[in-house]
Amino acid sequence: MGTVSTRKLAVVTGASSGIGLELARECVERDFDLIICAEDSGIHTAAEHLAKGGAWVLPVQADLAMFDGCKQLYQAIVDSGRHVDALLLNAGVGVGGAFLVNDLEAELKMIRLNVEAVVHLSKLILPMMVNRREGRVLITASVASTSPAPYLAVYGATKAFDLMFAEALRYELKDTGVTVTALQPGATDTEFFDRAGMDSTKVAEGKKDDPAEVAKKGVDAMLAGKDKVFGASMKAKMEGLVGEVLPEPTKAKMQGKQTKPGSAKNEHKH
Length: 270
What we know:
Elements: E1 8-13, H1 18-29, E2 32-38, H2 42-51, E3 57-61, H3 67-80, E4 86-89, H4 104-132, E5 135-140, H5 153-172, E6 178-184, H6 192-195, H7 202-205, H8 211-224, E7 228-230, H9 234-245, H10 248-259
Parallel strand pairs: 1-2, 1-4, 2-3, 4-5, 5-6, 6-7
Helix pairs in contact: 1-8, 3-4, 4-5
């Protein structure tokens, strides 16, 4: 525990696997200690793994889709007696498929995690950072946040929320010493598509970005205080830029071809 006072502290949500785990690893490499959170027991394995990099790592197993889960993480931060120097709000899930047949409870839980938890944790933790007049915040949105996302209709809307929330917060905090950055990954090689029930889609079968590269870009941009950064590849960047200029119906059609259930099998049909 001798290093505790000299290293900065990063809080990373959704850190048991995928982009979140890589974000946590990036923070360790830049001499941060960690408080990491996820709802699955893999968060403890992740903590053991990350601590080998020389950091103090505290795992918090909590379901951030629940009000009490957010409070649990906040209490762990308070109990640590540490200042939060970087807050990486990355926890999120997807539910793929046609809106009319998707499970309502799964979609409502997704809104609670992707939207409500981001608001709740920001409300609890940001005042602590603003009071010290320094800090970095990274909110994981998506390239989907600039476009309608058919067959990911609710997910896409949650990520649009995350992007707009991050951009607005950034402006409000512009004179406080705290910056807010939005990370917009494209399709990334994680468990996302499997968990979202999207294995049969064109986007799931296509080439994906390395989560480690996405995380590095995100942490670089966060520490530099940038407003947003696209995920690793030129493809993700192009998708994001196209999403900012094309009309909504056109973007919906482009997205729908990638995310429609069964689209992987129809790749050569028009």
